[in-house]
Design brief:
Layout: E1 2-4, H1 7-16, E2 25-26, E3 32-34, E4 37-38, E5 49-50, H2 64-67, H3 90-94, H4 106-125, H5 132-135, H6 151-165, H7 167-183, H8 190-209, H9 216-239, H10 241-267, H11 272-275, H12 281-287, H13 295-318, H14 354-358
Antiparallel strand pairs: 1-3, 2-3, 4-5
Bound molecules: fe (ii) ion (2 copies).
């Protein structure tokens, strides 16, 4: 039960828990009590779970069976995907590796330091603790007895990470769109790739939300972080698009590290809750996975997506945004030679140089 004397605060709290309709507004004099109900993947005609206000979600990780029964909103309809996901094969996904592009100039150093700062904030906000020796590969997660990361902690981290990761593509796409229509010039094909990246990140988020519902505190953190990050990225992109793409490239390097660690934790038997869990239907449909695919399979797809974003943004940061075509949308004269593409067949971890990207 959350109580407030302010109708505005009550409305804000109602929105913060995901727009789930309050069961009752009680109006004794000026006091408004809002009973908030949390709704975890059941249909609306199933009994709603009412629980007290808390700062962290008490909701257990859901079994996928109950999640796959029905969509969360009775008005939801299946629609054709605006950006169908490219097909990745198992070997391509297994070959994804952690990589780092060395900072080579002042702009790169601003980008990498901004990412390191953000990474530190993320770690605090999501309670992330991973033995540095495990993180660096010196020690196997199997040898760790006091293991800090749990299924729920990973979910909190994924959800927070993905809620932020969906911002840059749309900001960059919006600004390039506006520039194109005010300068009466073509965009050279960048906008679609940028918007597609934002869409892909939102699909990651929606997938994780099928597995875990964050509590009120986390939701407020996400709202606050988006407000700050959107505006900061918007202003930064106006000042230096190149630095912003490099920043996203470094951010995606971190995302690949995060998902690689989560996958190795599953392999080491540290996350038994994930071992027999099936990927939710939204993931099976989006990535065109085999029915019965596991959470581990799903994380392999997501890690491959992050590696793709890493490549795309490091490459875009190597180009002249006013002059150069988007190499990931270009048709090449000799398709037998490796070129930038939509898939991950010729993935370049640290991006394509300008000469490579513009070759025919
Ligand atoms: Fe993502
Ligand atoms: Fe990403």
């Amino acid at each position: 039960m959350l109580s407030t004397r302010s109708p505005i605060l009550a409305k804000t709290a109602y929105r913060a828990v995901g727009g789930v309709k309050p069961l009752a507004y009680q109006l004794p004099t000026a006091r408004i009590s809002v009973v908030l109900c949390q709704y975890h993947g059941a249909t609306l005609n199933q009994p709603l779970q009412v629980r007290s206000f808390s700062f962290t979600s008490k909701a257990p990780l859901q079994t996928t069976q109950s999640l796959q029964i029905s969509p969360t909103n009775p008005n939801q309809r299946e629609t054709k995907q605006s950006w169908p996901h490219p097909i990745y094969n198992e070997k391509q996904m297994a070959d994804i590796e952690i990589a780092h592009r060395k900072a080579r100039n002042f702009s790169d150093r601003i980008a990498i330091n901004a990412v390191r700062f953000l990474r530190g904030m993320f770690d605090i906000a999501t309670g992330y603790k991973h033995d540095p020796k495990i993180a660096s590969g010196e020690k196997s997660p199997k040898e760790e007895t006091q293991f800090a990361m749990t299924e729920k902690k990973w979910m909190v981290r994924f959800i927070f990470l993905e809620s932020i990761a969906g911002v840059p593509g749309f900001v960059a796409g919006t600004l390039r769109h506006l520039k194109s229509i005010r300068s009466l010039r073509r965009d050279n094909g960048w906008i679609e790739t940028l918007l597609e990246e934002g869409y892909n990140e939102r699909m990651h988020l929606l997938t994780f939300l099928k597995l875990h519902q964050p509590g009120l505190f986390m939701r407020l953190m996400i709202i606050g972080a988006q407000g700050v990050f959107y505006n900061a990225f918007f202003l930064s992109y106006l000042l230096s698009p190149r630095t912003c793409h490099r920043f996203v490239g470094y951010l995606e390097e971190e995302a690949v590290i995060t998902y690689t660690r989560a996958i190795s934790d599953i392999d080491a038997g540290k996350l038994p809750g994930f071992e027999n869990m099936k990927a939710p239907q939204i993931a099976v449909d989006y990535w065109k996975m085999n029915p019965g695919a596991s959470i581990r399979d799903m994380l392999l797809y997501i890690r491959a997506d992050e590696a793709k974003h890493r490549e795309v943004n490091h490459t875009l940061a190597n180009l002249d945004g006013d002059m150069d075509p988007n190499p990931f949308m270009t048709e090449y004269e000799d398709p037998s030679k490796p070129h930038p593409s939509k898939g991950i067949a010729h993935l370049k971890n640290t991006g394509w140089s300008r000469d490579e990207a513009l070759s025919k």
